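check these tokens.
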Amino acid sequence: MSRTYQGRSIELLAPVGTFADFKEVIQSAADAVYLGGKKFNMRMHNPKHNLTNDEILEAVAIAHQLGKKVYVTFNNMMTDVELADAEDYLRFLEAAQVDALIIQDFGAVQLIKELGLKLELHLSIMANTHNAEMLATANELGVTRCVISREASLAQVQEFVREYPGLEYEYFIHGDMCIAHGAQCYASGVYFGKSGNRGLCMKPCRWAYQDATADDPKAALVYPMAVKDMSLYQHIPELIMSGVNSYKIEGRMRGADYLIELINLYGEAIDRFLADPVSYQTDLDKVAYLEENRVRDLSTAYAFGKPGLTNIAMDGQREPRVFSRPLEEPVMKPRRVEKVAAHLQELLAKESATATSQQAVEAQNEASVGVSTLVAQATAAANDAIEIRVTVDNKDAAMAAIASGVDSVYLSGEVLEPNPAFSIADLRAIAAVANEAQISVYYVLPRMLDQNQFRLLDDLIAQLPAMGITGLLVSNIGEIHRYQHTGLKLRGDYGLNVYNHLSGKFYQEQGLESVTLSIEAPATILATTPAQIPLPSEILVQGAPTLMYMEHSFKKAQADRTDNDWIDGGDAGDNLDLIDENGFVRKIRCDQYGKNHLLPTKDFDYAPLLPEIRQTGVEAIRIEGKEYDGASLKQVIAIYREALASTEATLSDRMAWSDRLATVTGHDQSLQTLIFD
């Protein structure tokens, strides 16, 4: 099967969940299928789903006999413990002659490069490709196709095609969508220890919330994050003319009985347009079929701009499955602190013993410095001073951090209401005081940047070196590409999702001077990975990092508006506290660009575990001080200095640090992801 339009290839890409489904779906109007093996993919809940290695071999043979393609999802975040399995699996996939891998973790890119494997690479939706700078990096890495961000419109895709016509572009056209940017949702990992970036999302975005507008909010429930399913069936001409190459149907958890008719329906429409574009008309009977057989209500999502409330099924009537119920974030308890501290000590002792044993073998064989030597060096360096780095949202907090003698101050580029964005005058004043105190200052770039935001920031960033700003904190490969030659140092933020040492090595080769460990990292990763990462690493130990990063504006949706509409005055900002059906508050905060951030209700608080964290090999700890005023921040820093100075601590000491942090900040404290292992 071969489809083209004006010289560009056209592909209808269908999902497959099991080998039985594959045998039916491959006979449909699809040109290619995507599927997962038994590990390393984003659909890991059901052990009956996904294909065995033998089934993958047979699937590839059948597909190739039919002139069709098989893409394998290798798109969750790997741990260092899993790297040996990953290597074996990647070698198998190369031998199986799969047509491409769909990847998220840039550690996988690094591994494939180091193994010298001949595998075609597609960037997953979880890589969240959303600007031309990311496309440039993908092109340089040898990636042949990018699955474009769910938040990108077809008009933006057209711009990408004009700028990088040699790349292929994949775009979702039908199925289940997420409310958060790809790979920028950590809520499931923090609430349940089941990471959405590792194929185990518990869908907290589908929870019910009390309706604040009702007479009895507790009795009236709404679903303000329940995104509708996407459907572009009524927009086949716009889809094809955008330059998209591959039209992707979501649904690897759906059976063939549901998928076959859907695939053929889209295939027939595409073929009718290609045969006669001028006279093409949408088949209204097929529209009625889609409506009658929908899982959720349907929307065009972001294909034509920000959709606002039209993209949300507020009544939640058609939610097909409840994965989880709202629960309280983990409470800071003495027994819990004692248990996690003991677990970290056990892991660190095991790592130390392994490193010592391997060092002896290396010395005997006169081996070169390897990972085990790096572990030993990092452990020895634990006695050196660990840096304290602090993220702030306002000038007062920045000055307080400097007065407290921290090592680095991170000035947020996505300031949360009610604080105003940092002005150029603010930046100059902060940098002047910091330079005098010999404290480095970094400007934190937004998590996601479109081309207009890049243009907005270019002038500012060109001025930063002269102000005395040391560098930038980056969250995606596009930001690295655009600003790597500005003379500013680059550090990686937690949005890069560093989960293994190979992703750290990848970012080192991209020019970063340090990386931040994923905020979803459990104790096992915290204890073992920093020492193996070949560049300095930091860990976020305190505060409220973003758990969901969203284009959707909840406050504007309540008023049935979007950022593109005229907004009536009078409402105080876009911040919002949602109260779930079990009475727990979920904080939504809006930044200067209109992005919405779900924050934890309880602060991350790893102070009770600092005696162990000192031994992991991390170079720095970070206090996410965006919600703290200057006076509170000074006290938080002082408590962390005290805890860092303690090589040993009683349980009473550990709980005292946490209790004082709760008093100073006014927030409950939690070990969050470290309780899950």
About this structure: Confidence is low (pLDDT under 50) at residues 367-383. The CA atoms of residues 211 and 220 lie 6 Å apart. The two ends are 47 Å apart (CA to CA). DSSP finds 22 helices and 27 strands in the chain.
